[in-house]
Design a protein that fits this description.
Elements: E1 8-9, E2 14-19, E3 22-27, H1 29-35, E4 38-42, E5 49-50, E6 55-61, E7 65-69, E8 74-79, H2 89-92, E9 100-104, H3 116-126
Antiparallel strand pairs: 1-2, 2-3, 3-9, 4-6, 5-8, 6-7, 8-9
Length: 127
């Protein structure tokens, strides 16, 4: 699967896209593929603060539970409520299925993340 070039990525396998001051966060195809069938997503509540490189929730699959790490710092503005009943949407469309949206407190953090080419090189080394 091609990784969207307008997204940025973390070495913990989260992606973020930014429009204005809002960052949309999900997990990558590599992450969902490694996890297997996702059965539960634990996300923060609207209004919660998230911190760059700190956990903000978890994804549970039939294989394991994996922490989610925020690529940036900010305040949660929206949570994808459909994941409560359809967490497997992440498996079928990982780069379209977001987990949380965050108002960025420091938009410059986005520029410090991996671009698509750097992320693809990183996961190639992990395999």
């Amino acid at each position: 699967m091609a990784y969207p070039t307008n997204y940025r990525y973390t070495k913990e396998h989260e992606w973020i896209s930014v429009e204005g001051k809002i960052g949309t966060i999900g997990i990558t195809d590599y992450a969902q593929n490694s996890l297997g069938d996702i059965v539960y997503v634990d996300a923060p509540k609207v209004g919660d603060a998230v911190t760059a490189n700190a956990t903000f929730g978890s994804v549970e699959s039939v294989k394991a539970v994996s922490d989610l790490f925020s690529p940036i710092s900010g305040t949660v503005t929206e949570v994808n409520e459909s994941l409560k009943t359809e967490p497997d949407k992440i498996n079928s469309a990982p780069h379209e299925t977001w987990i949380i949206k965050v108002e960025l407190s420091d938009p410059a953090q986005f520029d410090g993340l991996l671009d698509a080419a750097a992320y693809e090189a990183f996961i190639a080394e992990e395999q």
